[in-house]
Fold this protein.
Amino acid sequence: VSEFYYQGVIDGMTELLEQLREVTGARGYLDGDSIGERHFHDLMGARRIRPQLLLRPGTTAELSRILALCHAANQPVAVQGGMTGLVSAAAPQQGEIAISMERMKQVIEIDPFTATITVEAGLPLQTLQETAAEHGLLFPLDLGSRGSCTIGGNLSTNAGGNRVIRYGMTRDLVLGLEVVLADGTVLEGLSKLRKNNTGYDLKQLFIGSEGTLGVITKAVLKLMPQPGTQDVAVCGVNGFEKVAELLLHAQKTLGGNLTGFEVIWRNTYELICQHATKVKAPLPVDYDFYVLIESMGSGGKGDRTGFEDMLGAALDLGLVSDAVLSNSAAERDALWQVRDAAAGVAAGIGFMHNYDISLNVSDMDYFGTEVEKRLRSHWPDAILGLFGHVGDGNLHIIIHVGEQTRALHQAIDDVIYGLIRELGGSVSAEHGIGLMKKSYLDYSRSAQEIQLMKTLKQALDPKGILSPGRIFD
Amino acid sequence: VSEFYYQGVIDGMTELLEQLREVTGARGYLDGDSIGERHFHDLMGARRIRPQLLLRPGTTAELSRILALCHAANQPVAVQGGMTGLVSAAAPQQGEIAISMERMKQVIEIDPFTATITVEAGLPLQTLQETAAEHGLLFPLDLGSRGSCTIGGNLSTNAGGNRVIRYGMTRDLVLGLEVVLADGTVLEGLSKLRKNNTGYDLKQLFIGSEGTLGVITKAVLKLMPQPGTQDVAVCGVNGFEKVAELLLHAQKTLGGNLTGFEVIWRNTYELICQHATKVKAPLPVDYDFYVLIESMGSGGKGDRTGFEDMLGAALDLGLVSDAVLSNSAAERDALWQVRDAAAGVAAGIGFMHNYDISLNVSDMDYFGTEVEKRLRSHWPDAILGLFGHVGDGNLHIIIHVGEQTRALHQAIDDVIYGLIRELGGSVSAEHGIGLMKKSYLDYSRSAQEIQLMKTLKQALDPKGILSPGRIFD
């Protein structure tokens, strides 16, 4: 390869950069030291790479022209929302141009009659929630990073969170999307219609595909009525078979009002009592499991009695050994703090890995016992805890194996994901695959499925410029 | 082209038929007069073509080998469920081999802890509903053809029906699918997991794509708790703005319990009173709209009072002028019969076309007035009625324009779909596109969207052997 070739590459890049700057203007074009460090990495922070360029389009038309230029130049891009991901999907790789959606954050319309909100992708989740609330409506997606994460990121990762048992994942809240394809083609699909069987439901391709098939620019989302009442109880339960029966009982008696069924294994509850000093333990460390049940009703008189009846029947049936029921908003918050403290006990212990897996409820008891046995066979003094959204089949595992915890990431992965594979579970319930979990994708998906994913990638992004190397190679 | 060519084609076909017969055995292989006439056409019956062969695979492995052979031989196929479709998707075209899923109708597993049922595609919907009910659970999808239609057909058309406002379309009830691709590859995806963000959600491709991208062989479906109470009211309402406000009021006060919000325009109510002689009209012909509201609760004491409170408040607010509330199961059924009679008034009038469209609730009042005006400008004596699942944005229009009603199908289509196009609505809310609505696909979808549909078809079925010509050319 001659020096003319390299000169050609350099000239080509110079020309591309000039064209991109023309599209975005100075406000949308940052390079060198002017690129903020938060664009180098996601919340997990496994990689910190400065993108060669940061583009901040202000409109769909600008993004379309950016992608058309990058496509023509075979230039890979990494699309960024709030950078709160955990699997290195939005973090740039060497040589990629970062495209941040942060300037596209308008609320375009809120329509009470279709109960929809139409927004740009860069809108922070919390702003979206607050806008809906101002109109007396609820946007039910909720997760810890609500202040920083963007709805575009929630869509591209199919985020889950706290109320999935009642309202579903992000995918279930989407009516329409506007998407820019790899070559700059704009796919207009901002429909508010709840029923629309006119050909393929194309929006499904872009939800949860982590930016590899297209860039979501706008969305029409479903809103719900604001619930009028909220009741919370924490129950002490002995034996997992009673946890499973309690779930069926709560679903049967609370029906559509059940919004939370969170289970804390005793090992986690002990860690909370020891290390989360600000949390007041509602029950003694006497039970195998601690179950938080939440119900939200529309505000009728029957909501509270219905919740009390559910709990009374659970005690009578012997499903629950003891229970604490909230009598005020402050008490509700205090009970939720117990559940939320599970993720925070690391502060008193040292660095802990936090796993996000899902499996069938009927396999959870075995999983809890077996994963502890296998982990202890490698690290006898491991500190670990299980907890999670059992109503959705979603568990979290926190683990500390001593000073080497960070370095032993892959060895711990192998134990946990190995067991998940045996049980037909998912190595990623909520967080996605990105770069971080790529080597475990085939633990949860078949060779034929992964081949079809590659066929779709090839069909939609034949040059592979959109977030290359994420999910699969 | 020489006669050797034709001889080659005949030899090739003879060989294919022999191979197919080897795969299926005599029980799964029917030709000539042994093919029942019900395999020639769907419920709409616009086309009646005898398939050159009817194959009835008994297992996924058999279907996989059938498709591999047809793929190698460039032989197009039409996959059939219960043949209750309305848009000529499953009806065979000239030269196609029909593949009926009717022998694959096993219930594979019902799992109360994940609240799922795993079934084969040929299972009739009603059998699925009854199996769930035997286990104290509800499969909420419900439509008039429940006794004949199959779950595979429901999945491939993304069927809607009576309870979409609460439980969603068929798509919303699916956790996992097993699918055979055009070349015979089996895609195993029978996951019961409610959260599984491991790469692309491939099952979405096959739901609602009318058999053009793959053949669904098995499904894992969500089940719900059986509701304990059911309350129904029919309300007389003057002015569409009050209908829209009543919808918001019902959603707000009934929350997750609202299962039905059906609206009958006065023109339809008059037709029902005149022609549906078996139906007892619950209210006089005095109001602009007749709204049926249904609520299903989990069985608590508050369910009935909550419903009565909702209705009382609606009367106090002036949203409702008069209302009839059910006090027994018989009265509930009688109120639903009024709504169901809308589709049956043709018996007293003559052939009526029945349209299935959707649009935003805020456009419905204008649509009702304008569509009548435009239709009458062509056919001054047209008999027409509007009614539908307004809570889902879904309307039906029945129309009779005299003896020529059948022959004038396309002229009536042009008026109705033309207005739908202007309003950004959908030319097919529930029924799909098939062959019948193909020429109107671009009324509801953009050129870029249709191009992407074709890209997907090309990627998944490059030889075009799966239901060719359906949805688009």
Summary: The longest strand of chain A covers residues 229-237. Chain A has 14 helices and 18 strands.
